[in-house]
Amino acid sequence: MDLRLLAALGALLCVCCSIEEGSAYTFRTFMGAEIAATAISSSAVVQRPCECRALCRDACLAVAIRRLLPGHFHCSFTEQKIAFTNSLVIPAPDSRVFYKRQGCLVNFTLVENVGFIYVSTVALNFTAASASCPCNSQLFTADSLVDFDAMREYLLKNANSSSTDLWIGLTRTSNITTWKWFGNGSIQAVHPSPYWGKNDPDNDSDCARILLKPSAGYFYHVADSKCSNPFKFLCKQM
Ligand SMILES: *[C@@H]1O[C@H](CO)[C@@H](O)[C@H](O)[C@H]1NC(C)=O
Ligand SMILES: *[C@@H]1O[C@H](CO)[C@@H](O)[C@H](O)[C@H]1NC(C)=O
Ligand SMILES: *[C@@H]1O[C@H](CO)[C@@H](O)[C@H](O)[C@H]1NC(C)=O
Ligand SMILES: *[C@@H]1O[C@H](CO)[C@@H](O)[C@H](O)[C@H]1NC(C)=O
Ligand SMILES: *[C@@H]1O[C@H](CO)[C@@H](O)[C@H](O)[C@H]1NC(C)=O
Ligand SMILES: *[C@@H]1O[C@H](CO)[C@@H](O)[C@H](O)[C@H]1NC(C)=O
C-alpha cells in the first residue's frame, strides 16, 4: 500500500473507532526498545502513536513506535514473534514496542453497551469462578440497567440449554437487602425489580447468578445461590 494512504488509514482508524478501546487486541508495552531491523516487515510515519497501533493489523504481531520531530512518529511493524528474551527486540531509549497479545480475546464477544464478554465452558463454585475469568476480565457487573438489559438480550438471543445458570460479580452485603457489584455500585433486594427474578433473593445465600428459567419467568434475571454450587460464569473485560 502507498505510504501516504497507509498513514491516512491509521489516522482514520485511530479517530473513528477509538481503536484503543474497541480493538480486539490488547497490547503489552516494552519501554526503551525497538524491533531489530532484520525483523521489520514494513514501516510508516504517522502523527500520533495510536495510529501506529491501529495499523498493526492482520499478520502484524508487534509495532515499535519512535518519536520523530516535530509531531511525527515512526512505526516499525513485525510479523515475527518477539520477546524481550530474543534478539528481535533491541534496546533503544527513544522507542517503545507494543506487542499484540494475540488470541487473548479470541473467545470474547463484543456485546453492544456491555463490552467484551466471555462465557465459561466449565462450571465452578463462585470463588473459583471469580478467580478464573481469563485475560484481565472479571465476573460480569452492570454499571446500569441499560447494561444489564443489553446483556440479558444478548444471552437470550444466544441462549442454549448448556448455559442456564451463570455466576456474575454480585454478592450480598452484611445488610441483607443490599447486594454489591464487584468494584462499585449495588442493587437493592426489592420487588418488583428489573434485576431480580420474582422469587429472589430468598435470603439464604450470598452469591448471585443469572438464571434462564422461562417457566418461572426468569429470563436471565438475578437469583441468589449457595456460593459452593458449580455454575458456568460470565466474565467482562475490564
Ligand atoms: C477458545 O475456545 C476454544 C473452544 O472452547 C478452546 O479450544 C480454545 O483454547 C480457546 N482459546 C483461548 C485463547 O482461550
Ligand atoms: C452453548 O454455549 C456454550 C457456552 O456456554 C458453547 O460452548 C456452545 O457451543 C453452545 N452451544 C450451541 C449449540 O450453541
Ligand atoms: C440496609 O440498606 C437499606 C438501603 O440502603 C437501608 O434502608 C436499611 O436501613 C439498611 N438496613 C440496615 C439494618 O442497615
Ligand atoms: C468507585 O467508588 C469510589 C468511592 O465511592 C469513587 O471514588 C470512584 O470514583 C468510583 N469509581 C467509579 C469507576 O465509579
Ligand atoms: C428476603 O429479604 C428481603 C428483605 O428483608 C424481603 O423483602 C424478602 O421478602 C425476603 N425474601 C424471602 C423469600 O424471604
Ligand atoms: C471451590 O472450588 C475450589 C476448586 O475446585 C475448591 O478448592 C474450594 O474449596 C471450593 N470452595 C467452596 C467454598 O466450595
UniProtKB/TrEMBL annotation:
Name the keywords, alphabetized: Signal
Keyword field contains DNA repair: no
Q: Where would I find the C-type lectin domain in this sequence?
A: 127-236
Q: Which residues form the signal peptide?
A: 1-24
User: Is Signal one of the keywords UniProt gives this record?
Assistant: yes
Output the InterPro entries linked to this UniProt entry: C-type_lectin-like (IPR001304), C-type_lectin-like/link_sf (IPR016186), CTDL_fold (IPR016187)
The protein, known as = Uncharacterized protein LOC108678283
- Organism whose genome encodes this protein: Hyalella azteca (Amphipod)
